[in-house]
Amino acid sequence: MNLQDKTAVVTGGGTGIGLAVAKRFAAEGAHVIITGRRKEVLDDAVAEIGGSVQAIRADSSSLADLDEVFRAVADRGRGLDVVVANSGGGVTQSLGEITEEQFDATFGTNVKGVVFTVQKALPLLNEKASIIITGSTTSTRVAPGMSIYAATKAAVRNFARTWALDLQGKGIRVNVLSPGPTLTPGLRGLAEPGAEQQLLDQMASAVPLGRLGDPSEIAAAALFLATDEASFVNGVEFFVDGGQAQV
Fold first, then answer.
1. Residue 85 three-state SS
2. pLDDT value of residue 91
3. What's the pLDDT at 141?
4. Which run of H or of E encompasses 9?
5. Which stretch of 65-69, 144-148, 222-226 has the lowest confidence by average pLDDT?
6. Spatial separation of the C-alpha atoms in residues 49 and 33, rounded to whole Å
7. What are phi and psi of 214, to 5 degrees?
8. What is the number of other CB atoms lying within 10 angstroms of the CB of residue 147?
9. CB atoms < 10 A from the CB of 158, how many?
10. Model pTM?
11. How many domains does the chain have?
12. Is 10 helix (H, G, I), strand (E, B) or coil?
């Protein structure tokens, strides 16, 4: 069990990739603290994850909510070994139609939330801790209407570069994990009514492997980055995308 007796925080751990990561970490022996905005979703996630798991309702863009999360970590008295800054989202909107509310919400969760999740975790991080930020293939391969979301993912990619330097000598690694199209509720939610399968097929056709990713495959990569198996991996963007952004 690669994370036996370790403590991990996974923001946005109630559904999709975050849920898959939390499940894998718990199965590998970690005590996992998941966060999310909806209590009922978190309750269902706790039941599905099993093992040593704790859920805290928190909005990652709220510094007060993040204080509650890391207060719970501190109260355990065992520090923190893995931080997965996974909370994120966004809308598809072309230039000329973007609203201030959409901009603020997307940057609030995807950028502000990442900055302060990591910053507030720092005093609790144990030796050889791993910080993992969920990125996206949109950081390098854009699509129409995705400018705001893609910009947030390009931002977090550069956070990892800079933070690897800021943290040099401390033994703490920071990396970006960038999935390709992955079969999650969030991906399905992008489809127009009645057009879900068409959207999924279209996305799969752009992947050299010819299929969508499964959340468990992203979780396996997160496990690698979280453990000493990746002890010399730092400051990278680790694509788990079936080759989509590589060709």
1. strand
2. 80
3. 87
4. strand 7-10
5. 144-148
6. 11
7. -105, 140
8. 17
9. 12
10. 0.95
11. 1
12. strand
Check if the beta carbon of residue 121 is closer than 8 Å to that of residue 131.
yes
Whole-angstrom distance, CA of residue 69 vs CA of residue 34: 9
Of 150, 153, 246, 242, residue with least CA distance to 205: 242
Q: Which domain holds residue 196?
A: 7-239
Instruction: Decide if 108 is catalytic.
Output: no
Of the residues 25, 70, 116, 149, only one is catalytic, namely 149
Residue 246 lies in a domain: no
Structure tokens at 232: 């010399």
Run of H or E residues at 240: strand 237-240
Lookup result for tokens 């931080």:
83
Q: Which of 199, 200, 157 has its CA nearest to residue 178?
A: 157
Residue 1 resides in a domain? no
| 245 domain residue, yes or no | no
CA distances from 2 to 8, 118, 228, 230 (A): 12, 22, 8, 12
Q: Dig out the tokens for 127 from the structure.
A: 């030796």
Q: What angle do CA 51, 45, 12 make, to 5 degrees?
A: 110
Query: Which residue's structure tokens are 């703490």?
Result: 172
Query: Does residue 247 lie in a domain region?
Result: no
List the CATH number of the domain containing 30: 3.40.50.720
Band of residue 136 on the pLDDT scale cut at 50, 70, 90: very high
Residue in the structure block whose two tokens are 């949109």:
138
Q: What is the pLDDT of residues 145-194, one digit of tens each?
A: 889 999 999 999 999 999 999 999 999 999 999 999 998 887 777 677 88
